[in-house]
What we know:
The protein is 33% helix and 25% strand. It is of the alpha+beta class.
Amino acid sequence: MATCDGPDGSEARQALYLYCVARAGGLRAIDAPGIDEESRVELAPFADLVAVVSLVRVDHFCGPSSEARMGDLAWVGARVCRHQAVVEAVMAHGAVVPASFAVLFSSIERLTAWLETHHDAISRALDRFARHEEWAVRVTLDRRAAEAQVPDVTGVASDPSRSTPAGIRYLQERSARLGAGPKLDAWLRDTCTVIVGDLLHHAAEFRERDVVRGPSEADGRPVANWAFLVPRSERDVFAARVESIHAGHVAQGLSLGLSGPWPPYSFRPRFESEPS
């Protein structure tokens, strides 16, 4: 859903659409189409930061007249891709704190006030993202291959006393919904727990992301979609470890795919007074 900073954002004809915030130094212009392919992408400086914005029609994103558009997957999808393209263009120049889709400010004064309120949190995030990158690990399961390989007693036993890495508990809660038998559920849960714990030796943080199914599951059923915040110095080691884990499990029907680096959406600060 769109977020607007005024009590009734639909009253304004235009607003500033926020893509991301970056360091001001060295960022001069962004060569990417705006969210509506009409307005230019512009820079709004504040102290040592710069907000990347463009002018948009408010009624495209807020108010009763926007409901049909925001419910149109083709309309939203095209604009999400343009939003992402702008953020990635900025990321080519350095660290960014990306904004969610459809965050609008009714004036430059409101944007400036928001930047002032969150300056320190944004600065800390930019410092961290200058040293770390977000990488995605997608896990898919070939159920037939896995069922053929799961032994009568799973090779990785659950141990309630073992410390579970942060973010893994969802696997335990979700296992009953995976559609596999109990043994396969347990094997998948415990195997994924071990994999994430292994990868966390080369990453600073971990987040679960929504599992999105594509039109075809020819490459296996998606069962997990993870985000890792990886130190730049560990990038190659992390990628090699993902490949090694994939090679060790593919015969059992479990495949890992790595993509990135991505803008750090999964690890950006949560701004309590973000427009609402």
